[in-house]
Amino acid sequence: MSSIRNIVILTGAGISAESGIDTFRGAGGLWENHRVEDVATPEAFARDPELVLRFYDARREAIQRVEPNRAHHALARLDAEWTGDLLIVTQNVDDLHERAGARRVLHMHGTHLSAWCTACDARHEWRGQLIDRPACPACGAVALRPDIVWFGEMPYRMEEIFGALVEADLFVSIGTSGAVYPTAGFVQEAAAYGACTLELNLEPSQGSHLFGESRLGPAGELVPTFVS
Ligand code: BV8
């Protein structure tokens, strides 16, 4: 990696699969026995807030019972040792990258451990449940929702992400199906600005043909090898 200075790494649900967190599409499009449109859109939350809050309470609770795996630890090592620019853009809402020790992490779809007050816009670290409609610690309103980017909502910090893609010498995608936009277009953005592109995934993704190189296998094996 001699001529490479700036790296962008995109991770998806596949990097957390070996930690025991279900991926979204491995189960044939169902997600914890729910259709995505019934639990991960603002319309779903408006229509049935209890269903959506129970769904996210269950995932927030489950996420605190699992551990980072070898892939998370390998990326954390790279983050600690890499002297150039490095940005781990994750679609995942778990905190396994951080718990493995990674620091330069950007959660573009939000995180499970944060609650967002739609009355005063405050964000709060949140490890408990939301189903009982607790009051916002800042303004007292009963207006907390998961701090998660749902379908139809703008992902977080897109300008920062595109700025990193423009400067990247290497773009690596790990454990994502390439099914969700605008994320699925990042590889083309990076390549357009001259980056080398590498995909590490269990099976061919919807975007495999867009990568300079695609390696197939479990992240727990491919990522430590890539980092070493
Ligand atoms: C937006 C939070 C615009 C919820 C999620 C074109 C352009 C722009 C938008 C669109 C477009 N076409 C359609 C859209 C709309 C939509 C979209 O993309 N729909 C899809 C379904 C077609 N996109 C949006 O709505 C986005 N917003 O575009 O806003 C806008 C503009 C102006 C103003 C307002 C808005 C927002 C998308 C974010 C939705 N939220 N998550 C939650 O987590 O609860 S997305 C959800 O899917 C997850 O975040 C997840 O990260 C993401 C992608 O899934 P993956 O991570 O890839 O997981 P998946 O299961 O699919 O795949 C796992 C992969 O891992 C597999 O390939 C598997 O082989 C591999 N794997 C499994 N095990 C392993 C492994 N690999 C390695 N090792 C293993 N062990």
TrEMBL record:
EC number(s) stated in the UniProt entry for this protein: 2.3.1.286
Cofactor binding remark: Binds 1 zinc ion per subunit.
Presence of keyword tRNA-binding: no
One annotated GO molecular function: zinc ion binding
InterPro entries in the cross-refs: DHS-like_NAD/FAD-binding_dom, NAD-dep_sirtuin_deacylases, Sirtuin, Sirtuin_cat_small_dom_sf, Sirtuin_class_III, Ssirtuin_cat_dom
Localization in the cell: Cytoplasm
Keywords: Cytoplasm, Metal-binding, NAD, Transferase, Zinc
Chain sites annotated for binding substrate: Y56, R59
Reaction(s) the record says it catalyses: N(6)-acetyl-L-lysyl-[protein] + NAD(+) + H2O = 2''-O-acetyl-ADP-D-ribose + nicotinamide + L-lysyl-[protein]; N(6)-succinyl-L-lysyl-[protein] + NAD(+) + H2O = 2''-O-succinyl-ADP-D-ribose + nicotinamide + L-lysyl-[protein]
UniProt GO cellular component terms: cytoplasm
Top-level lineage group: Bacteria
Deacetylase sirtuin-type domain span: 1-228
Pfam families in UniProt: SIR2
Predominant location category: cytoplasm
Keyword Metal-binding: yes
Residue sites binding NAD(+) per the record: 12-31, 91-94, 175-177, 201-203, 219
Active site positions, chain numbering: H109
Cofactor: Zn(2+)
Function according to Swiss-Prot or TrEMBL: NAD-dependent lysine deacetylase and desuccinylase that specifically removes acetyl and succinyl groups on target proteins. Modulates the activities of several proteins which are inactive in their acylated form.
Family label: Belongs to the sirtuin family. Class III subfamily.
Domain comment in the entry: 2 residues (Tyr-56 and Arg-59) present in a large hydrophobic pocket are probably involved in substrate specificity. They are important for desuccinylation activity, but dispensable for deacetylation activity.
Name of the protein: NAD-dependent protein deacylase
Species whose genome carries this gene: Altericroceibacterium endophyticum
